[in-house]
C-alpha cells in the first residue's frame, strides 16, 4: 500500500498553501478531515445526497494511508487525461496511458465510443469491481449525459458524499450539472468541470446584409423564439442563405427543452417540443431554408466559409473554438466574423462527468482529483485559458465576463461569458432518462426519412418506435 503526495515537488510550506487554496466551492475542509469524516460518519439528511455503502467509505483513511498503489481510470478519449496532465498538481506523465501522482501509478484505459464499445467496457469491469484484484480495481470512470443515468441509477457508481464531498464544496456549480448525475433516490454520483451551455452562432456579415445589424442583442430579436426564427429563415432564403446548415443543428435545442422524459413508466413518449421540431423542420426543408445533412459531414461544415451561405449554427464554446475551422485561412472564424447570441431557447451540448467507481481502493485520491478538477478556481481558470472550456463555476464565468482579455477573436471581439453563464442558469435537465442516447439517435434517423419525402410522418414514427424497442426490448409504445 502506498500514499499519494499531491505536491511532492514543492516545499512543505508551498504544499500547505496550495492545499488550502480556495476553490469555486468552499474547499476549506482538507482531505484528511474529509476522509476521516467519510470513513466514520454518514449523512442522513436527504439534502446531502449521502450514500449508504460502507465498503468504500471505510477505506478513506487520513492522507491516503492504506490506499491502493494503482489508480485506474476508464475513459473514451484523451480529453480528461489532457486536463489532468496539464492541470492537476503533482501529476507526471509517463507515457500515453500511464502517469504518476506521487508514488501512485495512474493507468488510463481508453476505449472509443464507436459501436458502444466504451459502455460495453464499463459493463464488463464495473459490476464486480469490489472483488477485483487491488491493482485492477477501477477508481474513476467518465460519463456523458446521454447515458449517465445508466450508471448513476446503479450501485457501480459511488455517491460523492461517501467520499466526503459536501454540498458546501460544490455550491458554486450549476444545478443542471448535478441533476444529470443524481440518482432516482437523490444521491449525487459525479461532478463535471464543464458547463457546456450553448447558443446561436451567427454569421455577422449575413446578419448585417439581411437583418441590418450584426449586434448580438439586436440579432437576438430576429431569433428570439421559434416562430420569429422561422420568419427570419424566409428573409435569409431570399438573400441566398440557409438559416442553419441542417435540421440536425436545431434538434438538441428542442430536445433540451422537453417537459416529459423519453420514457414514462416503461412507455416511449414523444414530447410536444420534439413534435414541434418535426413540424418546424419539415417546413424549413420543404421551403429550401435548410437541409437534412448529417452533423460533422462535409456538407454541414461548408457553412464555416462565406461561400457556404449558412447564417447560423447552434453550439457551445467548444464548437466555436475547435470545430469551425478557426485556423483555416478564409474561414468565417479565422476572419473573426461569427457572433453569439442566445437564440430561441437556452440549451447545453456536451460535458464530461467524473464518477467514482464503487469498490475503489483510492477514495482519498479520487476525492482530491474530483474537487481539484471541478472546484479549484485557479485550476478552472487555467482550463479556460489553455483549453477554452466553459467551466462549471458561475462566479468564475462572471469574472471572465467582466475581463476584456477574455474577448474572443473568433467572435469579433465579443466576450461570450456573460451569455454562457446566464444560459447555464436556465438549463433544465430534470427530464432526462437512461434511454436518451438511443431515443434521440433513432428519432432523428426516422424523421430524416420523413423530411426527405421517403416516408410519411406515421411511417417514420412507427419506424422510430420499432427501432427503439429493438434497442431496448423492455420498453413499449
A few lines on this structure:
By secondary structure, this protein is of the alpha+beta class.
Strand content: 5-15%
What profile does the largest beta sheet have?
6 strands, mixed
Radius of gyration: 23 Å
Report the span from N to C terminus: 53 Å
Overall pLDDT score? 88
Low-pLDDT residue spans: 6-63
Q: What is the tally of helical segments?
A: 20
Number of domains: 2
What is the fold named in CATH at topology level of the largest domain? D-Maltodextrin-Binding Protein, domain 2
Q: What is the structural class?
A: alpha+beta
The named CATH superfamily of the largest domain: Periplasmic binding protein-like II
The helix content is 25-40%
CATH architecture of the largest domain: 3-Layer(aba) Sandwich
Shape: globular
Count of individual beta strands: 13
Q: Determine and state the CATH class of the largest domain.
A: Alpha Beta
In what order do the strands lie side by side in the largest sheet? 2-3-4-1-5-13
Q: How do the helices and strands line up, and which of them pair or pack?
A:
Layout: H1 12-19, H2 31-40, H3 54-57, E1 70-75, H4 79-87, E2 91-95, E3 98-101, E4 104-110, H5 117-125, E5 138-143, H6 148-152, H7 175-179, E6 197-203, H8 204-211, H9 216-220, H10 226-238, E7 242-244, H11 248-255, E8 263-264, E9 267-268, H12 272-286, H13 298-301, E10 310-316, H14 317-322, E11 338-341, E12 347-348, E13 353-356, H15 363-375, H16 377-387, H17 394-401, H18 417-426, H19 436-451, H20 457-471
Parallel strand pairs: 1-4, 1-5, 7-10
Antiparallel strand pairs: 2-3, 3-4, 5-13, 6-10, 6-11, 6-12, 8-9
Helix pairs in contact: 11-12, 17-18, 19-20
Amino acid at each position: 500500500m502506498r500514499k499519494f503526495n499531491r505536491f511532492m515537488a514543492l516545499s512543505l510550506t508551498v504544499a500547505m498553501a496550495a492545499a488550502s487554496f480556495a476553490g469555486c466551492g468552499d474547499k476549506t475542509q482538507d482531505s484528511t478531515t474529509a476522509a476521516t469524516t467519510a470513513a466514520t460518519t454518514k449523512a442522513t439528511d436527504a439534502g446531502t445526497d449521502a450514500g449508504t455503502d460502507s465498503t468504500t467509505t471505510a477505506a478513506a483513511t487520513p492522507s491516503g494511508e492504506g490506499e491502493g498503489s494503482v489508480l485506474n481510470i476508464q475513459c473514451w478519449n484523451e480529453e480528461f487525461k489532457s486536463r489532468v496532465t496539464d492541470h492537476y498538481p503533482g501529476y507526471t506523465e509517463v507515457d500515453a496511458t500511464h502517469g504518476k501522482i506521487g508514488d501512485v501509478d495512474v493507468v488510463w484505459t481508453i476505449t472509443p465510443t464507436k459501436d458502444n464499445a466504451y459502455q460495453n467496457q464499463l459493463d464488463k469491469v464495473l459490476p464486480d469491481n469490489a472483488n477485483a484484484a487491488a491493482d485492477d480495481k477501477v477508481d474513476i470512470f467518465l460519463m456523458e449525459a446521454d447515458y449517465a443515468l445508466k450508471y448513476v441509477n446503479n450501485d457501480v457508481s459511488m455517491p460523492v458524499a461517501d467520499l466526503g464531498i459536501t454540498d458546501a464544496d460544490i455550491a458554486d456549480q450549476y444545478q443542471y450539472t448535478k441533476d444529470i448525475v443524481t440518482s432516482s433516490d437523490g444521491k449525487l454520483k459525479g461532478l463535471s468541470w464543464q458547463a457546456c451551455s450553448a447558443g446561436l452562432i451567427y454569421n455577422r456579415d449575413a446578419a448585417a446584409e439581411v437583418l441590418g445589424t450584426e449586434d448580438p442583442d439586436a440579432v437576438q430579436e430576429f431569433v428570439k423564439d421559434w416562430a420569429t426564427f422561422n420568419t427570419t429563415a424566409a428573409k435569409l432564403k431570399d438573400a441566398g442563405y440557409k438559416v442553419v446548415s441542417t435540421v440536425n443543428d436545431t434538434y438538441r435545442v428542442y430536445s433540451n427543452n422537453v417537459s416529459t422524459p423519453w420514457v414514462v413508466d416503461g412507455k416511449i413518449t414523444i414530447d410536444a417540443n420534439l413534435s414541434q421540431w418535426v413540424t418546424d423542420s419539415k417546413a424549413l426543408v420543404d421551403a429550401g431554408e435548410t437541409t437534412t445533412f448529417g452533423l460533422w459531414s462535409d456538407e454541414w461544415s461548408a457553412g464555416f466559409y462565406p461561400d457556404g451561405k449558412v447564417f447560423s449554427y447552434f453550439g457551445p464554446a467548444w464548437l466555436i473554438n475547435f470545430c469551425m475551422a478557426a485556423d483555416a485561412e478564409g474561414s468565417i472564424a479565422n476572419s473573426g466574423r461569427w457572433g453569439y447570441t442566445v437564440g430561441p431557447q437556452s440549451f447545453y451540448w456536451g460535458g464530461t462527468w467524473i464518477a467514482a467507481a464503487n469498490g475503489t481502493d483510492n477514495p482519498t485520491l479520487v476525492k482530491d482529483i474530483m474537487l481539484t478538477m471541478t472546484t479549484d478556481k485557479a485550476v478552472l481558470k487555467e482550463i479556460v485559458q489553455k483549453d477554452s472550456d466553459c467551466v462549471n463555476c458561475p462566479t468564475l464565468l462572471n469574472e471572465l465576463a467582466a475581463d476584456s482579455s477574455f474577448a474572443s477573436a473568433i467572435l469579433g471581439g465579443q466576450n461570450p461569458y456573460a451569455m454562457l453563464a446566464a444560459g447555464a442558469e436556465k438549463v433544465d435537465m430534470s427530464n432526462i432518462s437512461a434511454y436518451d442516447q438511443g431515443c434521440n439517435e433513432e428519432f432523428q434517423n426516422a424523421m430524416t426519412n420523413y423530411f426527405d419525402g421517403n416516408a410519411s410522418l406515421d411511417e417514420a414514427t412507427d419506424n422510430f418506435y420499432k427501432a427503439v424497442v429493438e434497442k431496448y426490448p423492455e420498453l413499449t409504445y
